Amino acid sequence: MASTLCGGMTVSLLPAHGSLGFQLKATSKQAAAVRWSALDRSGFLSGAQLSGFICSQGAATQHGRPHKRTLNTVVAALRLAPPPLHDMEERKRISEEYGFTQIGEPVPDDLTLKKVMDTLPQEVFKIDDIKAWKSVAVSVSAYSLGLYLIAKAPWYLLPLAWAWTGTAVAGFFVIGHDCAHKSFSKNKLVEDIAGTLAFLPLIYPYEPWRFKHERHHSKTNMLGKDTAWHPVRREEYETSKALGAALTLGYGPMRPWMSIVHWLGWHFDLRKFRPSERNRVKISLACVYASMVIGWPLIIFKTVITGWIKFWLMPWLGYHFWMSTSTMIHHTAPHIPFRASSEWNAAQAQLGGTVHCDYPRWVEFLCHDLNVHIPHHISQKIPSYNLRLAHDSLRKNWGKYLNEAKWNWRLMKTIMTKCHIYDKERNYVAFDDGAPKESKVIGFLRRVMPNLS
């Protein structure tokens, strides 16, 4: 296997009688990176900085990875050049490696978001009250059925009932999401009321979320500005061992539920909102607190604390699984960059930096096509029930630029074990990249998560 490194350096990894032989050539003292294999600790080795020409043959291995002595003598601070996405064969290779079905070509610098939007048929922007309230009926019916299943299911079938009910609750989020983007109803008061009510089963304050979410769309994948998922800054990670450990857990095994931290940290602090926003924020917070003060005691009174866990907490955790998973897949992959505001390009971020991911059809039905995400980033005025039509149009006109996947374990594993710390040249590096030894937490994920696509 051969790779081209930053600064013109090259590397080949050659199998030799059960060991690996390294052949490295550097044209400068610049640091570079060497790939060990697609299944290793993040794809990269660490060791002493390259200078001039280094060649080491027959390096010892242990459990399929370099022996510690190899790490200390071969390479350090090694950095691969960003994948050449202009090359079709390379895009196919990394599509398979990352768990994608297609990785798009780079979006040209001169392509504008307006030009993309102008190719969409006007019917995708049409608000249809019947379709909107049909989605409400679907979510209410599915949620009611879920609560019935929880009440009647024997203990060994409860996980299935929770999975259904949590997914149905995610449908309420999508309804509120449409309301926040003013794509649910032509009556804005109706939208605000419907959005607030849809968010109540989630204990989510509607207006605070709306204000923060608008910034996600205006600054998608903008470094330090996007309010959704973003890479960890190295200086943040190294602030303290406790914070580093918390971030490792949060961006590793707990990532499918990290939206809980986002929910708690972003939406309940009035100081995080502009003075002009605070009155509406207070109304939303009052609704949420009233729902908790009235609803939770009633559930506990009728079913005791175990009933609160069965009927509310477990479905709520199921909702956050879909919330976290969808959010991280929509904009997170090793080849999708975060850029500083001075380098940011709207079309590149929204068209080329957003991912379409197919889920099982029952999930897409209950979540009102939340997964059809690229057209939503082209225009937030597209109602959820028109997203598929809009995506078909994007495929027809801009298909070569689209990033698409079908949900699979390899995709999840790539994000949870590789996409951690921001790196300008590689976009992301793993928490233990360049560390003397592998992270126990991330290493555990690498070993136990399936690599199935």
TrEMBL record:
Domain Fatty acid desaturase: residue ranges: 154-401
GO biological process, one term: lipid metabolic process
Entries under InterPro entries matching the protein: FA_desaturase_dom, Fatty_acid_desaturase
Segments crossing the lipid bilayer: 156-176, 281-299
Keywords attached to this entry: Membrane, Transmembrane, Transmembrane helix
CDD domains found in the cross-reference section: Delta12-FADS-like (cd03507)
GO molecular function annotation: oxidoreductase activity
Taxonomic superkingdom: Eukaryota
Pfam families documented for this protein: FA_desaturase
Family of this protein: Belongs to the fatty acid desaturase type 1 family.
Name of this chain's protein: Omega-6-desaturase
Taxon lineage: Eukaryota, Viridiplantae, Streptophyta, Embryophyta, Tracheophyta
Gene behind the chain: FAD6
